[in-house]
């Protein structure tokens, strides 16, 4: 897998002829979980993976213009089909979960209990509808799960919201499973995440093949295994 920090989208015919899967992730996560999902799919397609780090808006634009071939981590917000093709099935489904200190486990028993709490969130992240539409919540935005955990330990926040599927193994690895626990109140919504292409993608002609890879990966538990190993290995 190659990571290109300087992006040039004019490619020679020779470069375009390479058996290369072009994709993109956030510049902050060039060795993150999404790269591992992409590498898995590139391996299954017998392609070399090239990563062009870009902010989210630029990634979407590059995908629509055919400058990258595939994106992961895409959440479909409505049923309308635009030029982005959401490959079926979704490769994972995650649930946002509130965590608190074990000594405060019963401090959040309903959504209303969040009103007087300071809540750790991820910068620019969207959560569930009721939470997103509540404009008077006291939020502290950070860039990583580790920062949320540290703020909670220091008493700088009362709770944080993050994916259960990544938080639980992280807490276990940090030896904090008996100190930081799931709050009594939890949202009921879960969020499916998709890999996406467009008609301009060089993978468009292989759409059925890519969807079969995703389907088999879900059935075999490959994506869950990649996630678990990622959080076990992450410092």
UniProtKB/TrEMBL annotation:
InterPro entries, sorted: Solute-binding_3/MltF_N (IPR001638)
SUPFAM superfamilies membership: Periplasmic binding protein-like II (SSF53850)
Domain of life: Bacteria
A Pfam family matched in the record: SBP_bac_3
Entry keyword set: Signal
Annotated Solute-binding protein family 3/N-terminal domain residues: 20-235
Similarity comment text for this entry: Belongs to the bacterial solute-binding protein 3 family.
Name recorded for this polypeptide: Transporter substrate-binding domain-containing protein
Source species: Neptunicella marina
